[in-house]
């Protein structure tokens, strides 16, 4: 990925707070609804899953595909967003 979206830049540039899952890069309304149905209703909860998977981007993208039906681009975008957020704030 050579460039990142404005949504990605906005997410990575500030603390997590109480952001909705739709604040994550790659997560639109449809994927957000599927994640919320699985109990992942906030960006911080999705971050928790990323951390449980030891920040392994491949494991996380597979999890996001299986859990929410994300495609490779969406899952990769979300994983990169969370990785860069972790690099900046953890």
From TrEMBL:
Protein name: Barrier-to-autointegration factor-like protein
Domain of life: Eukaryota
Predominant localisation class: nucleus
Keywords carried by this UniProt record: Nucleus
Residue ranges, annotated region (Disordered): 1-22
Location in or out of the cell: Nucleus
Source taxonomy: Eukaryota, Metazoa, Chordata, Craniata, Vertebrata
GO molecular function, one term: DNA binding
UniProt-listed GO biological process terms: chromosome organization
SUPFAM superfamilies for the chain: Barrier-to-autointegration factor, BAF (SSF47798)
Entry GO terms, CC: condensed chromosome; nucleus
């Amino acid at each position: 990925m050579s460039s990142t979206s404005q949504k990605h830049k906005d997410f990575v540039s500030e603390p997590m707070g109480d952001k909705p899952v739709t604040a994550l890069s790659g997560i639109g309304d449809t994927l957000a609804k599927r994640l919320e149905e699985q109990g992942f209703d906030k960006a911080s909860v999705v971050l928790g899953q990323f951390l449980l998977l030891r920040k392994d981007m491949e494991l996380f993208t597979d999890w996001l595909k299986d859990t929410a039906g994300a495609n490779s681009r969406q899952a990769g975008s979300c994983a990169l967003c969370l990785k860069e957020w972790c690099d900046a704030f953890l």
